[in-house]
C-alpha cells in the first residue's frame, strides 16, 4: 500500500555496506589498526534495512550488535574485506564506510617477533592494500550508486572532491574529523556529488544514517 511504500523507499534494493576498521596482522599476536568504531557504518546498515532494502554488512573487527534485518560478514584485514565485498555483488547501492588500513605488513611473521638482546629494533616494512572502493568502481558489477566516505581534518570538501574523481565514486560523504568524531556519536558531513557539495549540519550518527538513506532513495527515484 502507498503509505508502506513511502516509508520503505529502498524496497527490493540490495545495499552493501562496509564498516569498522581493518586489522592487518604483523605476527600471531600483533596487528596494525585504526580508531574507527564502526558506529556510522552500522547505523547506515540499520537505516537501509528499515527502508526496506536487503542489506549486506561487511564488518571489520568491532564490538557492535548486528542491526535487525542485516546480513553480516565479519572480516579482519583489507584483503579479506575486498573478497567479502566482491562475493556480495551485485548490489544496487554500495556505501563504503569502513576505515580500511592503507598499508599492511609486507611480511607476516609466522612466529611472534622476539626482542633482540642487542637492543636492535626490528624494521616494519609496509605494503599498500587494495583500494576496495576504487576496485568496485572499475568492476563489471559496479553498483549503480557507489558511495565512499572520507574522514578529513582540513580542506574537507576540496579533499573529498579530489577523492571522488580519483576513486570513481558517485558520491563522497566527507566527514569533518577535526573535532572529536572517531568513536563519538555525532558527525558533520558534506555530500560531494558530481554537481557540488551539500553541507549538512552536525547531527547524531543515527540521524546522518537516516538522512543519507533518504537521500539515496531520492537519487534512485529521481536520478538526482
Ligand atoms: N577505501 C577503500 N579501500 C582502501 C582505502 C580506502 O575502499 N584501501 C575507501 C574507504 O572505505 C572510503 C574511501 O575509500 O570509502 C576513502 O577512504 P580514505 O582513507 O579517505 O581515502 P584514501 O584514498 O585512502 O586517502 P587518504 O590518504 O586520505 O587516507
Ligand atoms: Ca586511507
UniProtKB/TrEMBL annotation:
<feature type="domain" description="DNA/pantothenate metabolism flavoprotein C-terminal">
    <location>
        <begin position="10"/>
        <end position="217"/>
    </location>
</feature>
<keyword id="KW-0285">Flavoprotein</keyword>
<feature type="binding site">
    <location>
        <position position="167"/>
    </location>
    <ligand>
        <name>CTP</name>
    </ligand>
</feature>
<keyword id="KW-0511">Multifunctional enzyme</keyword>
<keyword id="KW-0479">Metal-binding</keyword>
<comment type="function">
    <text>Catalyzes two steps in the biosynthesis of coenzyme A. In the first step cysteine is conjugated to 4'-phosphopantothenate to form 4-phosphopantothenoylcysteine, in the latter compound is decarboxylated to form 4'-phosphopantotheine.</text>
</comment>
<keyword id="KW-0210">Decarboxylase</keyword>
<dbReference type="GO" id="GO:0004633">
    <property type="term" value="F:phosphopantothenoylcysteine decarboxylase activity"/>
</dbReference>
<comment type="similarity">
    <text>In the C-terminal section; belongs to the PPC synthetase family.</text>
</comment>
<comment type="pathway">
    <text>Cofactor biosynthesis; coenzyme A biosynthesis; CoA from (R)-pantothenate: step 2/5.</text>
</comment>
<dbReference type="GO" id="GO:0046872">
    <property type="term" value="F:metal ion binding"/>
</dbReference>
<dbReference type="GO" id="GO:0004632">
    <property type="term" value="F:phosphopantothenate--cysteine ligase activity"/>
</dbReference>
<feature type="binding site">
    <location>
        <position position="149"/>
    </location>
    <ligand>
        <name>CTP</name>
    </ligand>
</feature>
<feature type="binding site">
    <location>
        <position position="102"/>
    </location>
    <ligand>
        <name>CTP</name>
    </ligand>
</feature>
<feature type="binding site">
    <location>
        <position position="112"/>
    </location>
    <ligand>
        <name>CTP</name>
    </ligand>
</feature>
<dbReference type="GO" id="GO:0071513">
    <property type="term" value="C:phosphopantothenoylcysteine decarboxylase complex"/>
</dbReference>
<comment type="similarity">
    <text>In the N-terminal section; belongs to the HFCD (homo-oligomeric flavin containing Cys decarboxylase) superfamily.</text>
</comment>
<keyword id="KW-0460">Magnesium</keyword>
<comment type="pathway">
    <text>Cofactor biosynthesis; coenzyme A biosynthesis; CoA from (R)-pantothenate: step 3/5.</text>
</comment>
<protein>
    <recommendedName>
        <fullName>Coenzyme A biosynthesis bifunctional protein CoaBC</fullName>
        <ecNumber>4.1.1.36</ecNumber>
        <ecNumber>6.3.2.5</ecNumber>
    </recommendedName>
</protein>
<keyword id="KW-0288">FMN</keyword>
<dbReference type="GO" id="GO:0015937">
    <property type="term" value="P:coenzyme A biosynthetic process"/>
</dbReference>
<feature type="binding site">
    <location>
        <position position="163"/>
    </location>
    <ligand>
        <name>CTP</name>
    </ligand>
</feature>
<comment type="function">
    <text>Catalyzes two sequential steps in the biosynthesis of coenzyme A. In the first step cysteine is conjugated to 4'-phosphopantothenate to form 4-phosphopantothenoylcysteine. In the second step the latter compound is decarboxylated to form 4'-phosphopantotheine.</text>
</comment>
<feature type="binding site">
    <location>
        <begin position="130"/>
        <end position="133"/>
    </location>
    <ligand>
        <name>CTP</name>
    </ligand>
</feature>
<keyword id="KW-0436">Ligase</keyword>
<dbReference type="GO" id="GO:0015941">
    <property type="term" value="P:pantothenate catabolic process"/>
</dbReference>
<feature type="region of interest" description="Phosphopantothenate--cysteine ligase">
    <location>
        <begin position="15"/>
        <end position="224"/>
    </location>
</feature>
<dbReference type="GO" id="GO:0010181">
    <property type="term" value="F:FMN binding"/>
</dbReference>
<keyword id="KW-0456">Lyase</keyword>
Amino acid at each position: 500500500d502507498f503509505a508502506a511504500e513511502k516509508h520503505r523507499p529502498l524496497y527490493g534494493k540490495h545495499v552493501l555496506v562496509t564498516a569498522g576498521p581493518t586489522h592487518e596482522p604483523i605476527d600471531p599476536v600483533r596487528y596494525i589498526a585504526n580508531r574507527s568504531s564502526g558506529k556510522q557504518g552500522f547505523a547506515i546498515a540499520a537505516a537501509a534495512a528499515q527502508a526496506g532494502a536487503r542489506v549486506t554488512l561487511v564488518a571489520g573487527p568491532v564490538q557492535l550488535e548486528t542491526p535487525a534485518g542485516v546480513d553480516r560478514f565479519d572480516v579482519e584485514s583489507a584483503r579479506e574485506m575486498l573478497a567479502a565485498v566482491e562475493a556480495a555483488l551485485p548490489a544496487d547501492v554500495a556505501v563504503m564506510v569502513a576505515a580500511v588500513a592503507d598499508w599492511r605488513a609486507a611480511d607476516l611473521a609466522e612466529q611472534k617477533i622476539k626482542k633482540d638482546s642487542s637492543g636492535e629494533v626490528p624494521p616494519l616494512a609496509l605494503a599498500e592494500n587494495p583500494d576496495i572502493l576504487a576496485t568496485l568502481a572499475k568492476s563489471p558489477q559496479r553498483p549503480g550508486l557507489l558511495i565512499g566516505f572520507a574522514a578529513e581534518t582540513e580542506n574537507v570538501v576540496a579533499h573529498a572532491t579530489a577523492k571522488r574523481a580519483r576513486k570513481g565514486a558517485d558520491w563522497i560523504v566527507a566527514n569533518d574529523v577535526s573535532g572529536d568524531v572517531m568513536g563519538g556519536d555525532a558527525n558533520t558531513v558534506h555530500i560531494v556529488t558530481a554537481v557540488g557539495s551539500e553541507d549538512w549540519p552536525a547531527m547524531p550518527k543515527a540521524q546522518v544514517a537516516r538522512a543519507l538513506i533518504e537521500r539515496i532513495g531520492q537519487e534512485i527515484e529521481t536520478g538526482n
